[in-house]
Amino acid sequence: MTLVLRGVVLTSGHLEVILSSCSNLKKLTIDISELPSKLQLTGTVIDVVILECVGVKEIDLHAACLRTLVCKIKNDVTFFFSFVPMLENVMVSRCFQLFKYSYIFGDHARDLPNQVKSLTLQFFADQDYFPIANPTEMKTFRKLTNLRLIPVTSHGILQIFELSRLLGDFPLLQSLTFAVFKVVSLTERTRSRRPPPSLKGHNRLKEVIYYGFDGSEIEMEFVVYILKCAIVLEQVFLSPRVLSYFSCAPHPEANASFSEEKRNSIQQKLHGQALSSKAWVIIE
User: Which parts of the sequence belong to the At1g61320/AtMIF1 LRR domain (predicted)?
Assistant: First the structure.
């Protein structure tokens, strides 16, 4: 029911043969391995985890029972969601490298079933583009209710995202999480500030979670924007802690906390900003 492949070399068609011979397989893990350029996932597998692998350029998902896909690949990958009627959770991370890259959800993703509700993307945000080749392809996931973005960046959220567009692409979004890894700038360039985002109401967003929050001016602007645009907002959770979703090892700042003075200062600046009468701001 569980198969772990670690440190192996898979050639073309090799994985397909393995999957076809494992009629009761529920969980597949491929770790630190070399994969063929085209990989097809088939069979009865429910959970697939692919970590620290190289070589694959296309992953075709054709697994009727697949519910969760977790991928951390060392090169550019195009995903094709050919037949995944049960897929609910997608987590994608690029292994940290100091050069540009992209993840592409291919043409078949435009037919992705509506039941995919949770998407997690980890990426370097100090490049000139989002980790999907064309940002409009995010509309593939317009039915998402849970979006988790993990930028590795030296910039603030408002310098990376056009928030009105980001939220507009996910009209059904209920939970938005940022888990920010702060780094020293990877280039000598400095990113200019975006103009203030146009305020557009979002009538589904209930929860916003921000890990790696340091209370800087630009991050406070982000929180104020959320408070003013989320009509049914119930909770904003702010924490300086840094979480590692794709690693078992804890981050050095996993237990970071604000001083009482800093916490009170943030609370005072955000007091009375919320449009929703149910909104609570929790500062860890």
Answer: 2-240
Residue (of 65, 69, 108, 66) closest to 90 by Cα position: 69
Global pTM reads: 0.80
d(Cα 82, Cα 115) in Å, to the nearest integer? 14
How far is Cα 190 from Cα 128, in angstroms, rounded to an integer?
Answer: 12
Contact 3, 27 (CB under 8 A): yes
- Quote the mean pLDDT of the chain: 82
Q: What tens digit of pLDDT does each residue of 160-199 get?
A: 777 777 788 788 999 999 988 877 654 544 555 556 566 7
In order, the DSSP letters of the chain are -EEEEES-BPPTTHHHHHHHH-TT--EEEEES-B--SEEEE-TT--EEEEEEEBS--EEEEE-TT--EEEEEESS-EEEEEEE-TT--EEEEEEPP-SS---EEE-GGGGG--TT--EEEEEEE-SSSS-SBSSGGGGGGGTT-SEEEEEEEESS-HHHH--HHHHHHT-TT--EEEEE-EE---SSS--PPPPPPPP---BSS--EEEEET----HHHHHHHHHHHHHBTT--EEEEE-----TT-SSPPTTTT----HHHHHHHHHHHTT--SSTT-EEEE-
